[in-house]
Amino acid sequence: MSHAAAFAPPVAPNGGRLLLGLDKAELTATLADIGLEPFRAKQVWHWLYYRGVTDFADMTTLAKTVRARLAETFSIVRPDVMRHQQSTDGTQKFLLKMADGQAVETVHIPESDRGTLCVSSQVGCTLTCRFCHTGTQPLVRNLGAVEIVGQILHARDVLGEWPKPGEQQRMGEDRSLTNIVMMGMGEPLYNYDEVAKALRIVMDGEGIAISKRRITLSTSGVVPLINRLGAELGVNLAVSLHAVTDELRDHIMPINRKYPIADLLEACRTYPAANNARRITFEYVMLKGINDTPAEARRLVNLLRPIPSKINLIPFNPWPGSEYEVSDEATIRTFAEILEQAGYPTPIRKTRGDDILAACGQLRSDSERKRRTLA
User: Fold this and answer.
1) Is residue 125 flagged as an active site residue?
2) pTM, rounded to two decimals
3) What is the CATH number of domain 21-75?
4) Among residues 105, 161, 283, 296, which one is catalytic?
5) How confident is the model at residue 371 (pLDDT cuts 50, 70, 90)?
């Protein structure tokens, strides 16, 4: 799975060094290289992540000579928008092109009490889950922190989230983008370092300031990195489970052959950030005649004890060429009732954006892996 590491994040088109995606220490050191004092890094950080500027000339607390030097040396680059689609339910999907021409999809889902951005971590996917459209696209490369953060910045641009001059940034539920889920294209734990770096930038209180309690990372079960995620970032954990036996999970999610259910659930039991107030979410896509019987619901109940859990039941979202069908409504409801009676919160996820292929499991770009030279 480590072959993706051979792809380095691209540089800016104009050759200038990218400032977005650097952590505070890196930003301070980078500006010091051109003779700027550490307090300048704090100013630049404010303009990049609190105000969301895209032009150094707009950093008006810096002297004109400093702004000119920054513009000559560095770049503030957002991903290019290849396609912007809006669903009838208000969901928006962006196909974003990175500096090397590769593309990923990002989705914003508005709800009455929140606005959630589904963010990608890889071009394509390392995994080949049989029910997931993204899994039909081979891994092209990992995204760099600059490209992960860039998806969030672009969404905030579109949603008008940046404070105007003289205004303070809106916080919490006053925002249109309140929550982030690392559930887009790719397996985020196979790109852990860049994902972690991006999320630390997003969580920083002097910038975008989205709390770890409003960030969820979804994994298909990369067991060795689950504990590290909880210890270092403390974000919410979601696990794509989708089966209650190794035999079935081996078939629909080949990662299970490396990290079987027992090992995965043990990592969940010891996840540092989990408690009754912050339950681990287990995602379970409902596949007609495959994993949707009452017996499987009861087995799921037994498997998850005593993990503080909630189960998201996800009606399968078809995509062109998919081999599965969605379970009928009565079957899903019966499955949910068994889980709820056992004490597990079990929302049935409402399908959003399926008319633009923006629903769970439907994301895919047309990027292809190019010939590369191994380091």
Assistant:
1) no
2) 0.89
3) 1.10.150.530
4) 105
5) very low
